[in-house]
Amino acid sequence: MITEQSGPDVVVRLDGVRKEYGETTALDGVSLEIRAGEAVAVMGPSGCGKSTLLNMVAGLDRPTNGRVLVHGEDVGRLSERDLALYRRRRIGMVFQFFNLIDDLSALDNVALAAQLTGTPARQARRRARELFEELEITDRAHAYPAVLSGGERQRVAVARALMNRPALLLADEPTGALDSRSGEQVMDLLLDLNQIGQTLILVTHDERLARRCASRLIRFADGRVSGEQAVEALA
User: Fold this and answer.
1) Domain 10-98+168-230: CATH superfamily, name plus number
2) What pTM does this model have?
3) Rounded to an integer, what distance in angstroms lies between the CA atom of residue 105 and that of residue 143?
């Protein structure tokens, strides 16, 4: 394990991160810090590097240059096996299109996240039921994704992301596939999670979502941080 001190409350630190795909530069020397309990929204036009940033923090891709540190650990230098464990145990991810397994019930989709880390099935299902109760979808536990509404599917996806009590929750356009009512419900859910201490990085095109859920907004352009501001969440 390779670690470096970043300060007691720094969860994520990017230090001069550059990512190239062939001749395309997706990130161009990005440096930033995210502290425990923060909700940070990353905004910018398509192709500006914001989803690449999320992939770097999630350990889904490695930087060409620079370092990505999570709790002082250099994610880019982990082995593939350790990266898989890192993603399962320390990172929760919420995607635009849910990424649920169609032939598993909602409950089993969520419980699987814990079973993959070695949690016994009975214990995993108990934890999943607790999350379904907290997220107010208990009556949909045995339904399959195809019969769930978009908002219900995203709540199941959030439950799955929270299953292993991750230090960091990453959300990539979490309301992008939802109607306005379901989107509002997911906004409220993310806001509630952050208010009880969940550290959150949110990638979005939705200015309202950013200002509703985040306390800090980072704007990207051409693979670089182009601006940063503190924001007050909208009522």
Assistant:
1) P-loop containing nucleotide triphosphate hydrolases (3.40.50.300)
2) 0.86
3) 5
